[in-house]
Design brief:
Number of strands: 10
Radius of gyration: 26 Å
Structural class: alpha+beta
């Protein structure tokens, strides 16, 4: 295929993998729900330049159980804030993350209304656009042929499209990290030694402004996730200059202009928050640098990433291991071939010393993983093409085929045993299994290139099958959407309101946002508790769920006294289910009267 059809084919596959059926999966995890609910509370106030002020309690920094949190100070009068500048979650100030993901979702909510599609479409589009950046970056670093392999690996590695289809800050961080590295390498293109240094005319026109694009991406990345961007970027760029021995690109003037652009875009929001919210800087330090020291929340052992580095490469794990041996086992190792290995290995090593560890933290390093897999896959294909007998290249391709078949069989088993297995899901899993077996036939042909196309198609179908037949089915079964529809009707009863400050984010996102202060005056409060783990334990041991003690909710109702707790039967969550609804009978105290007086005076 020539360059044009290759680009169109890559773009089409990227659109299919990253954008197809984004709205079919309910928001069932707290990570996505925090972004969606915060964005909803922004959008409901209007556009940022003409929005109405939102009353919220002031906050104080609290250190408890080894964690630093901004907690509402209900002993002080509420303050009025712009929700677009001071993000709110369930009516309380939330500053743990920068606001760019909230802003992107809130703008779409204002234009098209709330939906799962609007919540996820921005990071999904970034993932699709990242496919083109990945192609050009790989073309500059490892050549045009391997770049095409890198694109096929990018769109068929399950971890990458799965993470980019979630409304979290990590996809934004990963995309802007990739954009920064691409812009920096392209600015250095005239001095980078690569097999074909010439550039397409459409890209050559952007070369003079690539350094500006670098600083623009850096600013947006800081607004998306904050200081972690510097860590990922420093590791990649130091590895690049070490392996390719190139000077810092650009002139002093271009860097000064870029720094000015960076400050203009990224600095106003933290300065505004620091001016209006005390202790915000201490919280940001705890959430970023603190993960290397005092932040031990959800800490995991140092070796956590070592096995997971192969998990996030699935189904290309065999090609990744081959890539490591290919770049290390050459008789004469060229330093530039070590670039993806140094980039990926240093990232894993550094983040192994971070207390909090999660696989999404490695998403910004997946371009290095993709380059490494492309190196291994290219070497295996080359050996298999040159030789008609069984060689190590053919063995690697056979292992890759086996991985696809095993994953397809596992998909069918999961669909049949752990989901409601609707007929369409069962039929699709059968199609995935047949497609995964087809590369076995292609492997017998003398042209391994046909195997590559068939194997990538099978992996794409496998990725779609896992996302649609398993994850969508399971999340929709765990979703609180049906519960919220029933809960909203019960909240319409006289003198009854929902206690939003205690709502799990997955529940709050499907409930209407109250514009009044009914919860501050109501004597009957409905509270939702997530009890998934406890329910699973009782399922094994037997027994009924206990009714919580009133003191359990005392901290959630500081302006009143909880005198009675009763379980509210819900048709959408019967028995010992994940979600449980309780009715709190509250004896009101003076804070409710003071809040009501404050609201009426405004």
């Amino acid at each position: 295929m020539t360059r044009g059809p290759r680009t169109l084919a890559a773009a089409g596959l990227a659109a299919l993998v990253f954008l197809l059926f984004l709205g079919q999966r309910d928001i069932a995890t707290s990570h996505e729900a925090r972004v969606a609910e915060t964005a909803r509370e922004m959008a409901v106030t209007g556009w940022p330049w003409s929005c109405r002020a939102t009353l919220t309690p002031p906050v104080v920094l609290v250190h408890a159980l080894g964690m630093d949190r901004l907690k509402p100070d209900l002993s002080a009068p509420p303050i009025a804030v712009n929700a677009w500048a001071i993000p709110l979650l369930n009516g309380e100030i939330r500053l743990q993350k920068p606001p760019l993901p909230y802003w992107c979702a809130a703008v779409l909510y204002r234009l098209f209304g709330f939906s799962e599609f609007a919540t996820r479409v921005t990071p999904a589009l970034l993932g699709a656009l990242g496919t083109l950046l990945m192609y050009d970056l790989a073309r500059l670093l490892i050549g045009r042929t391997k770049a095409y392999l890198a694109v096929l690996v990018w769109i068929s590695t399950y971890f990458i499209p799965d993470e980019y289809r979630k409304s979290m800050a990590d996809p934004y961080l990963a995309f802007f990290t990739l954009a920064c590295i691409w812009a920096w390498v392209r600015e250095s293109q005239n001095t980078v030694t690569c097999p074909r240094p010439s550039s397409p005319p459409c890209l050559r026109a952007f070369v003079p402004s690539c350094l500006i694009l670098f600083y623009l991406s850096l600013a947006l990345g800081l607004l998306a996730k904050g200081p972690p961007l510097f860590l990922h970027l420093a590791i990649a760029l130091i590895a690049f200059h070490f392996c390719f021995r190139r000077k810092i690109p650009g002139s002093v003037k271009s860097h000064l202009l870029g720094l000015a652009l960076l400050l203009v875009i990224a600095l106003p929001w933290p300065l505004y928050v620091r001016h209006h919210i005390k202790n915000a800087v201490e919280l940001w330090r705890y959430e970023s640098v603190g993960e290397l020291a005092d932040n031990v929340e959800n800490a995991r052992p140092w070796w956590f990433y070592l096995p997971n580095i192969f998990f996030i490469a699935l189904p290309w794990a065999a090609a990744e291991i081959t890539g490591v041996f290919v770049v290390l086992a050459r008789p004469t190792i060229r330093r530039r071939r070590l670039f993806p290995l140094i980039w990926l290995g240093t990232t894993v090593l550094f983040f192994s010393f971070v207390n909090l560890k999660k696989n999404p933290y490695l998403l910004p390093a997946t371009p290095a993983q993709t380059l490494l897999i492309a190196e291994g896959l290219a070497a295996a294909l080359a050996v298999a093409i040159r030789s008609r007998r069984v060689t190590w290249g053919g063995i690697v391709l056979a292992i890759q085929t086996t991985i696809g078949v095993v994953c397809a069989v596992a998909l069918m088993v999961v669909v049949r045993t752990h989901t409601a297995h609707p007929p369409w899901a069962t039929a699709f899993s059968v199609v995935v299994l047949l497609a995964s077996c087809w590369p076995i036939v292609l492997l017998q042909l003398p042209n391994p290139r046909r195997w590559l196309r068939g194997q990538v198609a099978a992996y794409v179908l496998l990725t779609l099958g896992i996302m649609f037949c398993v994850e969508t089915e399971m999340d929709n079964a765990r979703s609180a959407k049906a519960l919220c529809a029933e809960l909203a009707l019960k909240a319409d009863a006289p003198n009854t309101a929902i206690l939003r400050s205690r709502l799990p984010e997955e529940v709050a996102v499907y409930l209407p946002i109250d514009s009044d202060d009914r919860a501050a005056m109501a004597t009957h409060l409905l509270v939702v508790v997530e009890d998934d783990s406890s329910a699973n334990d009782r399922l094994k041991q037997g027994g009924d769920p206990p009714i919580p003690d009133p003191e359990t909710f005392a901290a959630s109702v500081p302006d009143g006294r909880v005198i009675f707790v009763d379980r509210v039967p819900m048709n959408s969550a019967p028995g010992d289910s994940r979600w449980k609804v309780y009715e709190l009978t509250v004896e009101r105290m003076r804070y409710a009267r003071r809040t009501a007086d404050f609201v009426s005076s405004r």
